[in-house]
């Protein structure tokens, strides 16, 4: 039965069509917000997937180019693999949804969001987040929702609820907040050094709006929601835990995990697992879930140690950061490099500078963003965690970590006018034991400074964790979580920023939301930690950006020309500009407004190219001396090329002081000569003299 539901949201009508399409999905919602339309569906397999110890959730965000009236590029003329924006949007949908499914649920679930129409006033990403929640809530899939999402922008000092695409892109804040009833469950932010207090204000503005959306979703569910289906629980039997405690006591398990060395801990757990396997050799049912059981035993042990005993596995106090070290210039010949180490997490970042013409082209649903001048990429090879597997390119996690570190640095980058370079930073994970994305932020900041990129301020990042008890006020926030505390804890709250404020946030949790005191404490802790990292580790390695780019980095000189003269510089079919590029060994970029950049490694070649460009665009001045090359000899004189595409003639009478019979007696092709501009002759042509230039 087709039903339609509407509510007013941030001055626009949100419309949800239920029962109109996709009747065979477990749940489907056709979402409308302005003229933006997104189809959100939720489907689940009928049976659990065998042999896994995790919940198999897949979230997809499909950008259909017809939504913005475009035909996809390339030979196939159809959408290919997901764009970076689609992957990041899928991750933002996944993070608040995943904790709300039962922890012992092993049926495959897919949340699909297909963008069918885009109104630039209403961002489709927001509609997909809401649609996923609604489709799942009304389905028969077990789900402890609803959750709702609101986005906040900041334009001219004023918060904007669910901003338009241009307000989102050009404002000082890009904040996405997801909430359950009463609690915040996910935060994602990019910010232009927003003070912590203002960020908290924005988070809870979004949270309050989310409560009105949740009320709306509850009404939809009450009217059209399906009864949730039963499922086969994959929980570890309680009696198995009791048996395990007799084989390996809680004290022995605590001893096994209480070490600051990841490899030692893993060896200890392997030994524990082997002992359990021997004891349960005759119980196939228990052996089938042994891995999950040992994991849960470790988790209970670590959480008890932290929450009740205030002991961390590596012996640190609650707000202590692991040992830090930093260095720059460890890789020769690259344009900039730095390595940042925090405990057993180590990142090497390498920066490459290039002309703006090498900025990344972006093809997507947002016409406002067509190029990316700063690119941060993150790699996570298997050796960084002591494993072996072939590299198959970056996965969603790698893309997400790279985007977070990129977002962290963008607010402090110089403008294109100040620093006319495209910039690529690549973070290579050498070792991983928790929060490599924050180490990437620190390493890339130092690498940019080492490369001579004049960033406005230093940026550092850190992650806080959380362990909660049975009540809202029974919790401990941990500064600088390592891998074990991330796996067994309830939160990974990453914050990057400068001394002035926050540049990025990414918050993942495994519980049903955070109270405001936890959010405020985590944000305060991360500020304290990042200032400590900058002062004690990063600044001793490199305190400020270098004044110039390095020896092996391309140099750029610039000028501005009359836009009407651009065609003369380019020449017919690019003949003139290509001649300059080939002769001088440079790259040349010209914008439509006449901004010219000459890039190269050889200063003399760059200067010559710039001289040619200025010669082409400027009129010859009577009495000025010009230097050029003889390119043609006639009976009546010689033609001199002063720049590719710009020539002048010297009459035979003006070649030498004495009378000559033939031009060839004095000049040969290829000679470089100086000429004086004699002004216009009787025919109105500009003439030159070699003899008057001597």
Automatic annotation (TrEMBL):
It is an enzyme of class 2 (transferase). Pfam families: KH_1, PNPase, RNase_PH, RNase_PH_C, S1. Residues 623-691 form the S1 motif domain. Its cofactor is Mg(2+). Its main location: cytoplasm. InterPro entries: ExoRNase_PH_dom1 (IPR001247), ExoRNase_PH_dom2 (IPR015847), ExoRNase_PH_dom2_sf (IPR036345), KH_dom (IPR004087), KH_dom_type_1 (IPR004088), KH_dom_type_1_sf (IPR036612), KIX_dom (IPR003101), NA-bd_OB-fold (IPR012340). Residues 223-302 form the KIX domain. The keyword Transmembrane does not apply. Its EC number is 2.7.7.8. It catalyses: RNA(n+1) + phosphate = RNA(n) + a ribonucleoside 5'-diphosphate. Belongs to the polyribonucleotide nucleotidyltransferase family. This is Polyribonucleotide nucleotidyltransferase. It comes from Lachnospira hominis (ex Liu et al. 2021).
